[in-house]
Each structure stands twice: as structure tokens, then as C-alpha cells.
Amino acid sequence: MRIDSLQLRARVVVEGFITGLHRSPFHGFSVEFSEYRQYSPGDDPRYLDWRLYARSDRYYIKRFEDETNLRCSIVLDMSRSMSFGSGPVSKADYARTAAATLAYFLTLQRDAVGLVTFEDRVVDMLPPRHRPGQLRRMLAMLERAPTGRATDLAGPLDELAATLRRRGLILLLSDLLAPIDLLRTRLGSLVARGHDVVVFRVLDPAELSFPFESPAMFRDVESGRELYIDPGAARDEYRSRFAEHAAGIERACADLGLEFSLLTTDRPLDGVLFDFLKAREARGRLPGRRRPAGPGGGR
């Protein structure tokens, strides 16, 4: 996160992750998801990746796909609540970097990737494509700081459902500070249209633990409302209500058959990719793997 360039930051995470996969027991992931495989005698040496060799002291061959395997839209919450951060990294900075990392990784896979950013409305929308300059355009969109106010998932998700007519994968990154019924309804509408949805909930560790000690004025970053709170008196109720809301979100995702991952801003970013790949493998929908058609038309 100390790297200023968002593109370089994403590249460091992805390349380190791919190298780590080759050194880990998860050999299936490296075959299915990276553009690399280990060199074997008889392989064309023209496709050796010398940068990876310099970093890992092992030979890897670049693997090329003949066509795009996946259509993916990364949907990023840029509302004002995402600007909160109790440490050096805000939720917005972490989520933007996670989105850039996923975009970079999927672009290496030659998948069609697009980006949607929203506040209380959709701000920017770039349809999924695999073409020169697409990643650069997404990174430029991600550089913008959050300026919205309320976290309103209803309007943006309705607009998304109406716009994305072709089935694909949707990766939602948000703190999900919204009513459970609203989330269930809007995410359900995406599922009903045939989309696969992965939900990444991005939170600051302080939102989970409420570590504050001294009485102070607390300000709602979305509404601007200020309230004097004694943390000692409010902590138990806060934790209880927050846990109840969090459990409701996970239950709604489970009921809808969505993959859910909790990301905290103190977690290493390669965990985002690991959770993504592990969830896709568990669902049997790996990029690059063609599913046989069945009674549901291949669903």
C-alpha cells in the first residue's frame, strides 16, 4: 500500500501471488488461473518468462488463451462511508487496490473485465472488454477519491441489473452498510438474471471491535451528524447490533447462493485473490473451464 502507483501496486500483488502459487500445495490454481506453467523439456523457449525466473529461480512458460473465457464486472462502492480508516489505509484505498488487483489478474487471463463505481448512484460504468487500453481506463476510474454521501445500493444495483444484459460474473466490493432486506432483494435480482455474484465486504478493523476508550464526539461521515458517545457504555450494544447485521448479510448471501468474503483493511491483499479463486473452484466455475450444458441451459 506504500506504492503510489495503483497499477504498480496491483502488479506487485498479482505477480507475487502467482509466484506463491507455484511454491504452494495449490498446484491446481496455478494451472487453471495463471498465465504461467512450469517449463518442461520440449517447450518452446521463446515463451519463457525471464522476469519470473529472476524472482523465483524457476522456469515458467507463458500460456495463451485463444479466446475470452469470462465476462466480469467489478462493482465498487465509492460512497463517503468508504473513506473511513482507523489506520493508515482507508476502506476506499483498500477496496480500490483490491479492485485493481482483480482487474489486473483477470486481464492477464485474457478475460473481459469492466468496472462500475457508485456512490448513491452509478458514477462511472465501463462495460466488460478485453482490448488494449481497457485496464488503463479502469485504473484511471479507480484513482478518483470517494465524494458521495449515503450508501445507497438500491439505485446502483437496479441500474446495473438493467444494463448488464449478458450473463457474467459480478464482483461487488462494498462495506454493505445498508438494510438487509434491500441487499437481499437487489442481489437476488442479479442472480435471477443469470449472473454469478461474489460479494467482498470491506471493513475497517475498528468497525468490528469498536476499540475506542475515551468519550468523544463521533461524526457520521455520510450525513455529517455528530453524536457524543461514551464508548464504555455503548460498546456492548454496538458490537451486538453490528454482529446481528453482519450475520444477516452472510445469511442473505448464503440463501441466494452467493460467494461471500470478509476483507479487513489490515489483511494482506493477496488474500483477495486467494478467496476469489477458492470460491470459484468450490462452485466449479473456474475461468478457462467450460461447463457442460445441462437442464438449466449450462447454468
Beta-strand percent range: 15-25%
The 3D shape can be described as globular
* Sequence stretches where pLDDT stays below 50 over 5 or more residues: 22-34, 64-68, 285-299
- CATH topology type of the largest domain: Rossmann fold
CATH homologous superfamily annotation of the largest domain: von Willebrand factor, type A domain
CATH architecture of the largest domain: 3-Layer(aba) Sandwich
Portion in helices: 40-55%
InterPro entries: DUF58, vWFA_dom_sf
Domain DUF58: 35-246
Protein name: DUF58 domain-containing protein
Task: Give a quick summary of the entry.
Residues 35-246 form the DUF58 domain. With 299 residues, the chain is of the alpha/beta class. It has helices at residues 6-22, 27-33, 50-56, 91-108, 134-142, 154-163, 180-192, 205-209, 231-256, 270-283; strands spanning 36-38, 60-62, 71-77, 112-118, 122-129, 169-174, 196-203, 216-219, 226-229, 259-264.
